[in-house]
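Quarterly update, task 2.4: pyridoxal-5'-phosphate-bound model.
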Amino acid sequence: MPQMNRSLEHVGIGFAAFLTPPGPEVIRFTVGQPDFDTPKPVVDEVKAALDRGETAYTRTQGSVELCDAVAHHLTRHNIQAQADDVLITPGCKQAILYGLMATLNAGDEVLVLSPAWPSYDGMLKLLDCVPVHVPVKRENYHPDFDALEAAVTPKTTALLLNSPNNPTGAVYEPEEIQRIVDFAIKHDLWILDDMIYGTLVWTDYPYTSPASLAGGAERTLTIGGWSKGWAMTGWRLGWITGPTQVMDGVKKINVSAATHVPTFMMPAATVALGLEEETAVMAASFKQRRNLMHSLLTELPGIIVPKPEGAFYAFCDITGTGMDDLEFATRALDEAGVQLIPGSLIEGGEGFVRISYAASEDDIREGVRRLSQWLNSL
Ligand SMILES: Cc1ncc(COP(=O)(O)O)c(C=O)c1O
């Protein structure tokens, strides 16, 4: 057999091993997607677009209306994007890959605040770049600026930012984002800002975009999508915007890789961005479940869990139980019937488990009751 791409040997499979659907008797705290249906007006619009026959090739970066709608949506986060510099991608994930491809060269080092969503690591390795995992502060999962400073080398080219964060649930404060911008300016770095959870924030300060701060816009790629805030994971729709020169590169990559997202989905995605009430209801429900999950988890012996600030994950330090996270997750599944993600599947996540609260309140109560019974019986 001819040789394969050698970079693949270094690419992991993320959470996949612990995402296998278990039997119906198991409570799943593993799934990183909203448990809501896509809002009805969005579904109605995709059907109408199909009925109108919108099935042919179209504008590759996305329809004018959709790019306009994204640019308009971003103004609520104080991001001033030109609609012509917005590109629609098959999922936020692909937008991140395009952003990395447009800014990095093989051998470049990229700072990743760790633990991080595992796909960043895989993408960087696929591009023959080097993920440099910089641990966040253990007590609140916010950036450790001394550690970031110490990790910079002449090969450092970019920093990957994700706030609200998967897996930690942290939302960085506006002052911290300003420090990240200053740091990026000092070392002449790109910032790739994955704002996929930008509308799911439970703190009294909002998601803050580096592109909204002085000196940030010219070095930030803003990347997001519909999956989490609009309950549209399976639609595979994302966006990317940034400085025109970089976006010219991203457009070339998109034309070579995808051409465009399905034509009939574009008007539906536009409708989604105009919804206020439906998205607010979903966000309020996640906030309520955050409160419930956190108050129950804090009762568990041996577990420390800072209050999640955004997204729908609680990140628990389980070292006080005497188990490592793989043993904890394996035994939680086998002995308590609760599925969760062991942190050591992610670089820097050793000693932690990720618990998704995108589950019903009944499941949250029952799942934590089972964990409590199990841990107290040990
Ligand atoms: C931090 C982060 N970024 C991006 C994505 C991917 O989003 P999409 O499904 O739109 O590709 C996820 C999905 O879990 C995520 O957690």
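Highlight for this quarter: The two ends are 51 Å apart (CA to CA).
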